[in-house]
Design the sequence.
């Protein structure tokens, strides 16, 4: 079993690759209790248990269809293919015999409901889950190469104790070309690449089970998230998927910071023809303006990273600005920033009835003081760092402590750890002096056990057991959670003053928002 940091990296890679390929939307988070790790799937409160089960069952089918081009209605072929590639006795590729039942037969997991009535599915991380996450990553990398080469391969059985996937090509020449392309891409794009990751035998190429370095896995995810982030520069009207993600960014920062963003202005980095910068626009007494430096600080603090920077010297088009306040926005051409935004928005989302990612409008973020925990002692935390200029924020730990019923299963958030030896240079503002040592979400347990009867659902059986209440009293704070900035400092002005902005009329000609 790999260490917790590697498991965290694999879970994040699973989410980002699924989103990038538009295969299936997943928001898995890694949480823990003691030495045990769990994957948690969070659903919107509008989801009933039947809809949640249908969603979990759809993950396997959608991934198999995406990777191997199987027709939508061919369930038998999907199952047979899944058996060749994944461990169908482990999440998320289990063979569910009866999706109509509750709980699902052969389902290794538990169902909980939080105070807001949202359902969570929790399953333990075992060797089969680890293999499935690794195999999914290997299949994603192989699929990218095949698409670039415009070739196809056949799925064949392989030794799952030694390999993660196998692609059989029409001839030896294609298998050698695939090997060459795969290795060159690994060296060019990723870090800490494993040595000799492939084995070629006749027409077949095997990817070895060597994905155990979290730094390598994170570098793969970072590159994929960077591509996703740069695509957010297109017009929202031209791509509904882009619009949805921008909306999630707006909703997330609004909940965490109480800064209401009306939309974004798209802009271009200097000497580039592709829009890769999003500049938030807020309304001040009904008049649009760009962020003040204090607001940019709050938004960056929410992400625990310098996401909203002064881009005055980096943008092409001239924009009306407030005196010396600058132009604060998100530069998605920066891999670290793009990775931070994409991964944290995904992990703070819920699955809705359309099986899409969304932000729960009733979710509240609250600042909590750090409470003693033996599970936190000795754990070293590091924030993401920027490869361009090197950004490293101060380590943060925290916990959530809410009242819950005795005897309920308790889970702990796993802290997201990123490693780097780069110095702190870009993050000019300090947040550790503001008296908020640990911040986390409010996911408290409900008062009294919530049962199936409390969940809106059209299909229920009288024999359905009660759902457990979600108790977060021993959770570890996750570095992937957005931080609450309502109390970022001990004292905050009633109204944020914008320096150098005596009037708002100069903003009349701000470009249309996207």
Sequence:
């Amino acid at each position: 079993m790999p260490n917790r940091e590697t498991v965290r990296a694999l879970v994040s890679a699973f989410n980002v690759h699924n989103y990038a390929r538009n295969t299936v939307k997943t928001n898995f988070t890694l949480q823990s209790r003691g030495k045990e790790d769990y994957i948690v799937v969070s659903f919107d409160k509008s989801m009933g248990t039947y809809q949640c089960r249908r969603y979990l069952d759809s993950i396997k089918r959608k991934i198999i269809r995406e990777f191997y081009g199987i027709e939508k209605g061919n369930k038998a072929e999907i199952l047979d293919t899944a058996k060749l590639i994944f461990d169908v006795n482990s999440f998320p590729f289990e063979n569910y015999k009866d999706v109509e039942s509750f709980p699902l037969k052969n389902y290794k997991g538990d169902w909980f409901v939080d105070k807001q009535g949202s359902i969570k599915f929790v399953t333990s991380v075992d060797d089969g889950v680890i293999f499935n996450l690794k195999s999914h990553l290997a299949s994603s990398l192989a699929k990218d190469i095949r698409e670039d080469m415009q070739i196809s391969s056949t799925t064949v059985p392989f030794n799952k104790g030694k390999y993660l996937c196998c692609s059989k090509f029409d001839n030896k020449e294609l298998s050698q070309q695939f090997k060459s392309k795969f290795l060159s891409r690994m060296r060019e794009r990723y870090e800490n690449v494993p040595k000799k990751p492939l084995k070629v035998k006749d027409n077949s190429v095997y990817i070895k089970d060597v994905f155990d370095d979290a730094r390598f896995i994170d570098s793969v995810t970072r590159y994929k998230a960077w591509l996703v982030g740069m695509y957010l520069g297109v017009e929202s009207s031209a791509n509904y998927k882009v619009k949805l993600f921008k909306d999630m960014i707006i909703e997330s920062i609004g909940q965490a910071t109480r800064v209401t963003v009306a939309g974004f202005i798209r802009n271009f980095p200097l000497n580039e023809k592709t829009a890769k910068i999003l500049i938030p626009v807020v309304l001040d007494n009904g008049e649009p303006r760009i962020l003040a430096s204090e607001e940019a600080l709050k938004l960056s603090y929410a992400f625990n990273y310098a996401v909203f920077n002064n881009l005055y010297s980096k943008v092409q088009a001239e924009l009306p600005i407030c005196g010396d306040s600058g132009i604060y926005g998100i530069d998605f051409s920066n891999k670290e920033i793009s990775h931070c935004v994409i991964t944290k928005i995904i992990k703070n989302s819920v699955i809705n009835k359309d099986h899409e990612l969304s932000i729960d409008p009733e979710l509240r973020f609250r600042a909590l003081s750090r409470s003693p925990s033996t599970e936190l002692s000795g754990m070293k935390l590091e924030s993401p760092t920027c490869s361009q200029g090197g950004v490293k924020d101060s380590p943060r730990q925290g916990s959530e402590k809410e009242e819950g019923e005795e005897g309920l299963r308790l889970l702990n958030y796993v802290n997201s750890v990123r490693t780097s030896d780069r110095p702190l240079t870009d993050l000019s503002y300090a947040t550790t002096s503001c008296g908020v040592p640990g911040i986390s979400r409010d996911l408290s347990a409900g008062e009294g056990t919530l049962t199936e009867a409390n969940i809106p659902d059209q299909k229920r059986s009288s024999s359905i057991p009660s759902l457990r209440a979600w108790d977060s009293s021993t959770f570890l704070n996750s570095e992937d959670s957005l931080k609450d900035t309502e109390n970022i400092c001990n004292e905050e002005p009633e109204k944020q003053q914008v320096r150098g902005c005596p009037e708002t009329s100069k903003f009349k000609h701000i470009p249309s928002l996207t």
Q: What stands out?
A: Residues 234-331 form one domain. The chain is about 30% helix and 15% strand. Residues 127-149 form the longest helix (23 residues). The longest strand covers residues 277-284.
